[in-house]
Amino acid sequence: MKVNVAKRPGHYRTVTFDSQNNAVCLIEQRLLPHRFELVHTPDFKATARAIQTMIVRGAPAIAATAAYGLAQGARAFRSQGLEKFKRHLVTVYQTLKDARPTAVDPVNAMDQVLAGMSPGETVLEQQALALAAAEQFALESVAHCEAIGRHGAKLIRNGTRVLTHCNAGWLACVDIGTATAPIYTAQAQGRKFHVFTDETRPRCQGASLTAWELAQQGVSHQVIADNAAGHLMQRGEIDLVIVGSDRVLGRTGDIANKIGTYTKAVLAHRHKIPFYVAIPLSTIDWNLKSGFDIPIEEREESEVLGAWGILADPTRKTAQAGKRAYVRIANPTSGARNPGFDVTPADLISGIITPAGIFKPKELWRKRQQLGHPGC
Ligand code: MRU
How far does residue 339's CA lie from ligand 1's centre (Å)? Predict the structure, then answer.
């Protein structure tokens, strides 16, 4: 995606791999929108930490990171025996899988890498195949987002007011984004529309990341407080909701996404506003039978009790102005509960925008062959 860094335009992908140094290269998303920095993770443990600490985040982006992390761990193995290599791979796989539990994409991505390695008869062959498979996953992920854009853009007309939640943009993917793909495609097709982005407490991915992306792309947008969406819907100021997802159940059509998505879906249903979920194929979980079985990540209470940002002082240039800081917001003696995701049931969802077209949530299982079910 094109970004202006220090007023100079450049093209960046969220996740890439430096094969010479066996390092995964990531955009440090915790510093955005105030600073643009790239980081390199030197080994698979550091890659897992980058996922866990949200240097990189968003289901398709952590999927590509895990795929490269698995290849990175495989390539770092310095012995010959295939049995020992397999045991090492189990450790690498598990470390990356455990970094964040809700998104299914990292698991699907790593399974794809393992399948790509399997024809290799030696450790060396498997190491080479691992990187090729990870690259392949990342490229496919970009192609999926392009296709989501083509299918989803027809939902956006001149004058449409779109609501989105969290960041399901190019930062959450390798490039382009899922929920933002229809937006960018509609923009490229010359349509004029407006996007409301929920701030998305507690980590504020909407206010910091989606808003930054939309500004970089010149898309008309405003940040709204999470609690403002109901009011705008009631007044007829929102025509369409598009969100991403961290796990879509292929058997039921239920979806997990950033906390607050369920609330928006209930509101959209009440106000008869179409509610769409945009996903690459790696987001589909073909195994789980109920949304209640999706593991919901519980994160640190500090995220709810305070917020990160930069210290701003518009009137005086103090030494502290512009510095990144954590500010305590809540009462000092109170604790917090911080579930990172919620589950939206299929009956609240108008359609799932996939690279293969737009489907009703309940249609996914019937269309499983088209949607890449591994058994088909
Ligand atoms: O906790 P995050 O920032 O990794 O969560 C990401 C989301 O839930 C996004 O909303 C997104 O839709 C899923 S990734 C395209």
Answer: 13
Do β-strands 194-198 and 161-164 pair in parallel, antiparallel, or remain unpaired? parallel
Mean pLDDT confidence for 121-135: 97
Q: Among 210, 257, 263, 308, name the best residue to mutate to test ligand 1's pocket (greatest count of ligand atoms within 8 A of Cβ).
A: 257
Q: CA separation (Å) from 9 to 6, 29, 53, 369?
A: 8, 18, 28, 41
Does the Cβ of 279 fall within 6 Å of ligand 1?
Answer: no
Does residue 5 surpass a pLDDT of 90? Answer: no
Last residue of a domain, one of 146, 176, 204: 146
Ligand 1 site, residue 246, Cβ cutoff 6 A: yes
Q: Which two tokens stand for residue 319?
A: 């030494």
Task: State whether 132 and 270 are in the same domain.
Answer: no
Pairing of strands 255-258, 341-344: antiparallel
Region for residue 141 given its phi and psi (left: phi exceeds 0; alpha: psi -120 to 50; beta: otherwise): alpha
- What 3-state DSSP class applies to 26? strand
Q: Does residue 78 sit in the same domain as residue 100?
A: yes
88 is written with which tokens?
Answer: 């090492």
Q: Are residues 39 and 70 in the same domain?
A: yes
pLDDT score for 145 = 98
Residue nearest to atom 6 of ligand 1 (CA): 58
Whether residue 314 is predicted with pLDDT greater than 80 in this model: the reply is no
Residues 307-325 have a mean pLDDT of: 80
Distance CA 36, CA 94 (A): 30
Q: Which are the contacts of 331, defined by CB distance < 8 A and separation ≥ 6?
A: none
Domain co-membership, 173 together with 250: yes
Does 232 fall in a domain? yes
Ligand 1 atom nearest the C-alpha of 279 is: 15
Strand ranges, E, within 142-298 = 161-164, 194-198, 221-224, 240-243, 247-249, 255-258, 275-278, 284-285
